[in-house]
Specification:
By secondary structure, this protein is mainly α. It has 12 helices and no strands.
């Protein structure tokens, strides 16, 4: 019997495809903006949202989205208008998010085991309703990352130059952060809140080893993320392991192979340049 004959694996595969595409799609801009740890910070904030859902009886995915978006807007406001640097604002998100998550979970009378499916992912237990939300939000993230790629790139590369070009830097900065927050919640059930940042960063880092332009890096990162998510899901089923960590490990393997390939090709390219 085929693996995909099971309905839960069909749902899981669709979620893996959406996550594999959407996480690197927005992660490319996060890395370009030198905020690689933004995913971790927003992941901890989303944990508070999950706990709030458990406490109030609302679907945790819904409350996680709302709280994560609020955290994303807050960090951009602190960076733009306050005296708080980006790394300090991220640190506050780390501490406040995990503290609020644990506190609200205890108040809800839930055990730590309840949070595990959100911390480390639980893709095979995804319901049809959750899948619908994941697909809808994932498509929006990918679409907007492609539509506004020139503006996002300008803002991430040089904010001062982007202002000269007439781009609303603060607006697009907030939009990048909000899309990152949405991506966190999309990937929450796939790889988990603790590992979601890896799927936003590692495929991008791997793509940078071999790509020469931002556009090619963007598409290559999405392709690597898709490969890692689908391969990781199917591999985890075969070896009876958790999908989340397996997906991240495969993404890391691709990065190592890409880095080795670049190291092997660099001497050849250098020699050809000298001869030419």
């Amino acid at each position: 019997m085929s693996v995909l004959s099971y309905q839960f694996m069909q749902y899981a595969l669709i979620a893996a495809i959406i996550t594999g595409l959407s996480a690197p799609a927005i992660g490319t801009f996060i890395v370009q903006r030198r905020l690689a740890l933004l995913g971790d910070g927003l992941g901890h904030v989303a944990l508070t949202g999950v706990a709030l859902g458990l406490l109030t009886g609302v679907a945790p995915l819904t409350t996680a989205i709302i709280v994560a978006i609020g955290g994303a807007i807050l960090i951009e406001v602190l960076r733009a208008y306050g005296r708080t640097s980006g790394d300090l604002a991220l640190a506050m998100l780390f501490y406040g998010g995990i503290a609020g998550g644990v506190l609200l979970t205890n108040l809800a009378g839930e055990s730590a085991a309840t949070l595990n499916q959100y911390l480390f992912g639980s893709i095979i237990t995804m319901s049809r309703a959750d899948l619908t939300i994941v697909v809808a939000l994932g498509v929006v993230v990918v679409a907007l990352s492609l539509i506004f790629r020139p503006q996002f790139f300008a803002v991430c590369q040089d904010e001062a130059h982007a202002k000269v070009m007439g781009i609303r830097v603060q607006l697009f900065g907030i939009l990048i952060a909000v899309l990152a927050a949405v991506t966190i919640t999309v990937a929450m059930r796939t790889v988990g809140l603790l590992l979601v940042s890896a799927l936003m960063v590692v495929p991008v880092a791997a793509a940078q080893q071999l790509s020469r332009s931002f556009k090619s890096t963007h598409f290559a990162a999405m392709a690597i993320g898709l490969f890692a998510a689908v391969t990781g899901l199917l591999t985890s089923y075969q070896i009876d392991a958790q999908p989340g960590p397996t997906i991240v490990i495969i993404a890391l393997v691709v990065f190592v192979l890409a880095a080795l390939t670049r190291a092997l090709l660099r001497p050849t390219s250098t020699q050809e340049a000298k001869n030419g």
